[in-house]
Every structure is written in C-alpha cells, then in structure tokens.
Design goal:
The protein is mainly α. The chain is built from 9 helices and no strands. The longest helix is centred in the first third of the chain and has 31 residues, at about 1-30.
Length: about 240
Amino acid sequence: MRAAHSQDTMQLDQDFDERQQAEKITALTYRLIRNNPHESLAQNYNKTLNDWVLLLRQTALSNNPVSASDFITAFQAVDEIICQRKGTMMLRRLAYLRLMQLFDSLHAFLKANRNSGRAVKKKLHQRDATIALDVYMSAQDPNLVGKDLRQQLSERKRLGKRWRELAIIDPLFVLVYSEDAEFIIAGFSRVDNATLKRVAARIQCLCPPDFVTFCQNAAERVRIATLDLAGSSQSLCK
C-alpha cells in the first residue's frame, strides 16, 4: 500500500511539474511574439535588411583561399555591432547569428587544415573549439587581454547559440520577436537551454505558412544581394 501511495504521489508531482513547465512555455511564447507579429516582422525587415546585407558583405570569407586573418577581420566587423558600437537592437540579434555562422566556418577550416596536415604543430593536441576561440581572441583589442576577456567571448558564443535556437527558419526570423527576447536570451538562470528549445519548438508549430514563405523569400533576396556587390541595396525594399 505504501509503495503504491508513494508512486501515486510521485506521479502527481511529475504531472504538476509538467503542467508548470507547459504554462511557462506558453507564457514565454507570448512574451516573445506579441500582437501583430506580421506587422512587426515587416517593419523590422524593412529597417534592418540593408544593414544585414552590408554586414554579410563585410564578413564574407575569401575563397582564394580563406585564412585565419579573414576570420579575424570578419569577427571584428561583427563585434562592432555586438558590442553596441554601431547598429540597432535588431541588427545586433542578426550579428549574434552571423557570429555563429563564422564559428561554424572556422571549425570547418580548422578541421580541413588538420586533415590535410597543415595544422600548426603546437596546436595539434588542442581541441578545435579552443583554437577557434583563440582566433576570436586575436580579433580583440590587444589592450584587452586576460581570463576575463576569454570568458566574455565565451559568453558571446553562448548568447549566439541561444539566438540561433530562436532563429528557427532563417536568421531574419529573429526580427519578429519583441524586446523581451533580449532579457529571455540573456537570462540563463530563468530560462535554461532546454526550456528555450521547447519554446522554439512551440513557436515553430504555431508559425503560419506565410511566415515561412516570407522568410524564405527574404533569405533568397539577401543571398542575391550579398553576391551582387555592384547592385544597389536600395532595390531590396522594392
């Protein structure tokens, strides 16, 4: 009898926790996406698109071939926005996503070098993640050194990963979120990564088809504009 009672109590506690978590997911979803999400996305898109294309151009990596210095230059351009030296809040969200794209490319670059035997000898026994952060460190002001800086850069990466979780369809999707998104992304203690994943999954389920179409079309315009260096960015808003 006692064992059965204990199991029933545990099940009730589990059900209660799941209900609480579900309520939290719902509340966070509606904090992120307020009234008139279509209008918010369209307005932020028109305000931010040209700057996003410019950032992509500034951080484009060479194909002849790419080098560590290319990554350093790209990281510096991204940091100008992330560190609030220029740009808007919406562009800053996109800059975090661009930061993660650059890290993905850098990891691929390091892996290719390692596989081809071009890795620096003293780096052979270091993990690619460590080397990648070293490259990112090289992009910082030489007057800012030390353990604290490395922690700050790791924190930027962590924020970038959380923004990527909410990008869902395409980087431009983060433009739909309210200003509360910044607090939710930065609030690791209040919204852990597992919860954020569930919020992203719920938003994806609720996402109307026209949102998907809008982001896909916008992504294609960005791709074309980024490649067409001679074209006028003004044509994007037509």
